[in-house]
């Protein structure tokens, strides 16, 4: 038996209007110069589709102009020019140096200006301090792409941001696409062309942070592209995600992002990757205030509320990791591994201690470790002593790896239909046994379409078994730490489970306003907080159940209303801008008689006068008993716009910080996934004899609140339903209290 209190939403408590970065309010939203019109936008006017940019002429141009080219010794531009000439030769492009005072650069004819180029160019690289005049000239020359290295733009503050906006406008009006400013030479690196298999495509906003992933080529792992996006005045990471996801050679996309230019654009790109079943693995800076602050000064972009960023990435299947080593390892596994036939993971070790330790860590990481069948265990005991456990983990005792039995054991494990992944930790070199084990694992990996992972624990890394045998295999995935192995395997299973069931929420997003929106807008009061009674009317307009209640202005009317509502009742003071009524003593619960209602009404008025609160009346509400208190809310994120949050209700949302977030649009599957993410989700299943709650009604309410967020997002700054009482299964859910702040 509970009354109602207001908790505070954990994702974003701002009440002021914020338009998502890169978005424009109103019926048309421009993304990459294309306005989303009828049929291309949801009910809020945000785009539902994204054109995949044609970046072939950026990465594989036929002609390249280098503006500011130099061959003078000791000048920074000289080294850059030399690298660009070498890159152009490798990709088969003609290169045209441009400099006002030189007739030739490194023996190549040099044009005095862009206007003097011998013909149109696909790509112009600008090595000048002020790129704006050159961008305008390139537009007249019909250049397709420009790369701007110069810094001193949005990363430096308001003046730099204004200069960057002028640069972006010039690029837009010129019809060319711009990479940068504040970018570097990473796109023009030397990529190995002797490596086979699916490749990793790399996107970074900080070139230095991409170096570890680029170096994977030295371990035999193929990279196809590197896109250093810099400040993203025009081209952004979303453009490259869309492009790479459509490339047949790309097996995984590795992203290092300090901020996102436009949240909706990023989600549309992630949606394209999910539909193409191309995994995106991301390090996203900004989990802490210090990280977010530093990232903003580096590239001048918004980092976004981290809880929302994390939820949005998970919602669209982006694998978020923390370290660059995890980015390397997870992207490598996802690029190389074929889809799993089964989710079972088996740990195979030559030591019982090693196997038990890794299996314990794997189970803690959430990996499924099925017990092998009695028949499979009997088969393994043909080659492994009977006293050793082979249930999972499989302990071979050491000696079998030194002869023909080692390969038999590996093949037998991989032949089990319940096994999809084999993990073999090798804690250190012990030749010749470790050499034979490594070779058997590499050979088995070549013969199976199941995932074989090896953890080479030696800190040295120069051993032949590691450098030649393990890294020489294009099918094995080799790790240096157990932690990174388990993180990558978990991401692998999650990715394939996610993409197998994925349905684009943008395909099913509402495109026309519902009748509820027209009713609801009549209730809104711009710039004001609604009273609880008005807020509940707003919920009722969207079919969200609220208690029976009447707003009264006298004690006698309160008694009559109680008779109509039905005892017991709750009395609540009502006024706009009145929150946390319980803390002020402005709620009376469980009143069972006319005298109690009459006295309660008078007491609420006395407290209101003492607290100097001007009331518009008192709510006489139906008493709702015995349910699970939840909360539902809508707030605005700087990057993603309206977000929907749910969690345990009452004060628990603040005390436990147990909430789940989604960015609209989303479907029923994501609404249910939100509930599964809550640490307190078992309360909905029924604990200590309580009946299971009506989860279906809760999910339906979440989806109705999402519809409100989509349709009223430009009019409502914040919505807080707390508590939402979820009743016993089959009895529905009731919004006991609500707060709405209008824009």
Largest sheet: 6 strands, antiparallel
- Determine the N-to-C terminus distance: 34 Å
Give the helix proportion (percent range): 25-40%
Q: What global shape is seen?
A: flat
Oligomer category: single chain
SSE-based structural type? alpha/beta
Over all CA atoms, what is the radius of gyration? 31 Å
Question: Can you give the mean pLDDT?
Answer: 90
What fraction of residues sit in β-strands?
15-25%
Low-confidence stretches: 1-38, 293-303
Helical stretch count? Answer: 24
Explain this structure:
The protein has 743 residues and is of the alpha/beta class. It has 24 helices and 29 strands. Strand 24 and strand 25 form a beta hairpin. Helix 10 packs across helix 16 and helix 19 (555-565) crosses helix 20 (594-611).
Topology:
Blueprint (H helix, E strand, L loop, with lengths): L28 E3 L2 E3 L19 H4 L3 E5 L8 H16 L2 E5 L5 E2 L2 E2 L13 E4 L5 H9 L4 E4 L9 H17 L2 E3 L19 E6 L6 H4 L8 E6 L8 H9 L4 E8 L5 H13 L4 E5 L4 H11 L6 H10 L3 E3 L2 H13 L7 E6 L2 H13 L9 H7 L13 E2 L9 H10 L4 E8 L6 H15 L3 E6 L7 H7 L6 E3 L2 H20 L13 H7 L10 H10 L7 E4 L2 H11 L3 E6 L12 E5 L2 H18 L5 E6 L5 E10 L3 E8 L3 H4 L3 E4 L5 H10 L4 H4 L9 H18 L3 E11 L6 E3 L2 E5 L1
Parallel strand pairs: 3-4, 3-7, 7-8, 8-9, 10-11, 10-12, 12-13, 13-14, 15-16, 15-17, 17-18, 18-19
Antiparallel strand pairs: 1-2, 5-6, 20-23, 21-22, 21-23, 24-25, 24-27, 25-26, 27-28, 27-29
Helix pairs in contact: 3-4, 6-7, 10-16, 13-14, 14-15, 17-18, 19-20
């Amino acid at each position: 038996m509970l009354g109602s209190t207001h908790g505070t939403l954990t994702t974003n408590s701002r009440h002021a209007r914020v338009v998502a970065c890169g978005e424009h309010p109103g019926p048309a939203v421009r993304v990459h110069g294309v306005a989303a019109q009828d049929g291309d936008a949801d009910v809020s006017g945000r785009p539902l589709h994204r054109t995949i940019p044609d970046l072939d002429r950026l990465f594989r141009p036929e002609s390249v102009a280098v503006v500011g080219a130099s061959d003078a010794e000791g000048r920074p531009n000289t080294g850059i020019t030399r690298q660009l000439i070498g890159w152009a030769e490798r990709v088969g492009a003609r290169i045209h140096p441009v400099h006002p005072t030189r007739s030739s650069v490194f023996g190549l004819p040099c044009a005095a200006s862009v206007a003097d180029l011998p013909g149109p160019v696909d790509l112009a690289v600008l090595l000048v301090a002020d790129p704006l005049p050159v961008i305008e000239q390139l537009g007249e020359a019909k250049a397709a792409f420009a790369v701007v290295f110069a810094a001193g733009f949005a990363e430096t503050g308001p003046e730099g941001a204004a200069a960057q906006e002028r640069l972006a406008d010039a690029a837009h009006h010129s019809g060319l696409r711009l990479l940068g400013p504040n970018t570097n030479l990473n796109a023009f690196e030397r990529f190995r062309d002797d490596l086979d298999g699916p490749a990793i495509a790399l996107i970074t906003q900080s070139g230095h942070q991409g170096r570890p992933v680029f170096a994977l080529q030295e371990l035999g792992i193929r990279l196809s592209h590197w896109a250093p996006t810099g400040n993203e005045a025009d081209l952004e990471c979303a453009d490259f995600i869309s492009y790479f996801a459509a490339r047949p050679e790309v097996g995984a996309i590795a992203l290092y992002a300090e901020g996102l230019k436009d949240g909706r654009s990023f989600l549309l790109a992630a949606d394209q990757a999910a539909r193409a079943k191309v995994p995106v693995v991301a390090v996203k800076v900004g989990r802490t205030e210090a990280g977010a602050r530093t990232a903003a000064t580096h590239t001048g972009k918004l980092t976004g509320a981290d809880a929302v960023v994390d939820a949005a990435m998970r919602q669209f299947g982006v694998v978020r990791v923390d370290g660059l080593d995890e980015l390397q390892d997870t992207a490598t596994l996802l690029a190389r591994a074929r889809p799993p036939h089964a989710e079972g993971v088996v740990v195979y070790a030559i030591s019982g201690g090693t196997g038990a330790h890794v299996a314990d860590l794997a189970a803690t990481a959430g990996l499924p470790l099925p017990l092998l069948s009695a028949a499979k265990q009997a088969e393994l005991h043909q080659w492994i002593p009977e006293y050793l456990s082979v249930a999972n983990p499989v302990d071979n005792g050491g000696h079998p790896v030194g002869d023909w039995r080692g390969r038999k054991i590996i093949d037998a494990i991989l032949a089990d239909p319940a096994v999809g992944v084999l993990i073999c930790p090798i804690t250190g070199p012990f030749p010749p046994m470790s050499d034979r084990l490594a070779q058997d694992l590499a050979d088995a990996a070549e013969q199976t379409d199941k995932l074989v992972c090896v953890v080479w624990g030696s800190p040295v890394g120069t051993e032949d078994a590691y450098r030649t045998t393990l890294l020489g295999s294009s099918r094995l995935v080799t790790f240096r730490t157990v932690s990174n192995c388990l993180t990558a395997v978990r991401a692998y299973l999650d990715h394939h489970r996610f993409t197998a069931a994925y349905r684009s929420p943008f395909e099913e997003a509402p495109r026309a306003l519902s009748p509820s929106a027209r009713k609801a807008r009549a209730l809104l009061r711009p710039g004001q907080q609604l009273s609880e009674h008005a807020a509940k009317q707003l919920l009722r307009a969207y079919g969200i159940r609220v208690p029976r209640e009447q707003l009264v202005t006298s004690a006698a009317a309160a008694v009559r209303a109680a008779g109509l509502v039905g005892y017991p009742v709750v009395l609540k003071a009502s006024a706009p801008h009145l929150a946390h009524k319980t803390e002020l003593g402005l709620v009376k619960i469980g009143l069972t008689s006319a005298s109690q209602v009459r006295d309660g009404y008078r007491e609420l008025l006395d407290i209101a006068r003492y607290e100097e609160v001007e009331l518009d009346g008192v709510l006489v509400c139906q008493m709702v008993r015995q349910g699970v208190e939840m909360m539902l809310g809508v707030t605005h994120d700087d990057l993603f716009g309206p977000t929907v949050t749910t969690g345990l209700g009452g004060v628990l949302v603040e005390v436990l910080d147990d909430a789940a977030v989604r960015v609209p649009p989303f479907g029923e599957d994501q609404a249910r996934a939100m509930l599964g993410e809550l640490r307190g989700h078992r309360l909905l299943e029924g604990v200590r004899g309580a009946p299971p709650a009506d989860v279906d009604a809760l999910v339906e309410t979440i989806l109705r609140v999402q519809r409100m967020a989509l349709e009223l997002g430009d009019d409502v700054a914040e919505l807080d339903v707390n508590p939402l009482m979820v009743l016993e299964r089959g009895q529905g859910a009731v919004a006991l209290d609500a707060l709405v702040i209008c824009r």
